[in-house]
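We close this part of the discussion by returning to an individual protein. Part of our work consisted of pairing the sequence of a single chain with a tokenised description of its backbone. The amino acid sequence and the backbone structure tokens for this protein are reproduced below.
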Amino acid sequence: MELMKDYGDQIENEKEMLADTTNEYQAGTIGADICAGRVLVIDYPRQRLCVIDSVPAVYRRCSFYDCSINILGYVIIPVRVHGRVYHVLFDTGSSMFQLLTYTGEIDEFSTEPNDDSLVINAWRKKRKIVGRPMKDAISFAGHSYLKTKIYADSTSGAELIFLRQLLHMDITTGNALFLNNTVIIDFKNKKMAVII
């Protein structure tokens, strides 16, 4: 799956580059520390982002909603699913997944049959991922999202419970949910807006 086809610089010899530990190289990584105390604007339709000191004037009249920032500086969004509020980690590294949980909990979000499966590489491990549609809308930041898909990672429950406790989150969302939106995260004031 390619969300931003033909985007970015081509890497001629990735294996050689990754084996060379003398040169520091990061491809597309922006750490949470860069955003701390600042404002991140991700304009998905125009494929651009910026990290600035305050909310741009053009967005100041938008509705902003509470979010939280965990101990590692990651954004946690309160998302309502089936009438319950979940703490959802906003992870731009989970780009292809609208929502991501693990196989032991996917039925909590959807009992529909799986209609997608793939194997991904994450944290130097191959992981089997399955996906299925959700019947109910999810809502947050003043918007409801219909026809959302939830994916499940085959990560062991024990490993995931540890990560959830460390990160203070229930499930994960990535870029795929916002591809038609502009997302503004005010890290300083712990606020978020989604412009549709």
Summary: Residues 36-53+62-195 form a domain with the Cathepsin D, subunit A; domain 1 fold (CATH 2.40.70.10). The chain has a mean pLDDT of 84.
